[in-house]
Design brief:
Elements (H helix, E strand, L loop, with lengths): L2 E9 L4 E8 L4 E5 L8 E4 L2 H10 L4 H4 L3 E2 L13 E9 L2 E8 L7 H16 L4
Parallel strand pairs: 5-7
Antiparallel strand pairs: 1-2, 1-6, 2-3, 3-4, 6-7
Length: 128
């Protein structure tokens, strides 16, 4: 079954940007810390890493998450420190997008764990 995702993280005081994408058809994981994509790093993902990621999306819980977890009302005054996250996942014929921020409330724990695992894999491969 085709499995792919695109994760982005942007904003904050330092205007941070991170893009990580993966496609099981090519087994290529791509990371960039630049919006222009000029410093793109591309590597082949090991089967064990892909299996780990698939485990995080096992079942359909991710596809039941809300599409948007907005930041709390008190953060609108100072949005310079807000980091925005987007995760788009394709599993077979299903596609789901979830958007949230570091100031969002009521984010599912699994979403936080998925984000951490994606960053851990690209970090361990010295891609970021």
């Amino acid at each position: 079954m085709v499995f792919s995702f695109k994760y982005t993280e942007s904003g904050g005081l330092s205007n941070k940007y991170l893009l990580v994408s993966y496609d099981s058809a090519t087994k290529e994981i791509i990371a960039s810390t630049d919006m222009t994509g000029s410093n793109l790093v591309q590597k082949t993902l090991a089967d064990s890493d892909e299996e780990t990621l698939r485990e995080y999306f096992k079942g359909n819980r991710f596809f039941e998450f809300n599409a948007d977890y907005p930041a709390g009302k008190d953060t609108e005054k100072d949005d310079s420190s807000v980091l925005s996250f987007t995760l788009i996942v394709t599993k077979g014929s299903k596609v789901h997008t979830v958007i949230w921020t570091n100031k969002s409330t009521e984010i599912p724990d699994e979403l936080t764990q998925i984000k951490a695992k994606i960053k851990e894999i690209v970090s361990s491969k010295k891609m970021i």
